[in-house]
Amino acid sequence: MKSHKPSAAHTKLRDEIIALVRRYGQLLDAAEILAIAAHIVGQLIALQDQRKMTREMALQLIMANIEQGNQEVIQKLADEQDGQA
């Protein structure tokens, strides 16, 4: 699957979702937030036009973005730790 650089709209949406997660992080534990996010992703898959995006295509897209998100957090944590050593 081809990777794309996030547009300004993509970044804005992601930043707003992250802010919302942080706000609710005071009320819910991480597993609850993850479950809610997964539920929403399931709903978004159901809303896709199956002629353009099959379930399998959606799952590949999700897995690629999970990997990218994990790598970004790992890199950020490593950079923060390097700065404190």
Characterization of the model:
The chain contains 3 helices and no strands. The N and C termini lie far apart (37 Å). It folds into 2 domains: 8-47, no CATH class; 50-85. By secondary structure, it is mainly α. The longest helix has 30 residues, at 55-84. The chain has helices at residues 8-24, 30-46, 55-84. The mean pLDDT is 92.
Q: What integer value in Å does the Rg equal?
A: 15 Å
Tell me, what's the shape? Answer: globular
Helix/sheet category: mainly alpha
Helix content: over 70%
H/E series, N to C?
HHH
Q: What count of helical segments does DSSP give?
A: 3
On the 0 to 100 scale, the average pLDDT is 92
β-strand number: 0
Distance between the termini: 37 Å
Strand portion: under 5%
* Whole-number tally of structural domains: 2
How can the largest sheet be summarized? none
Low-confidence stretches: none
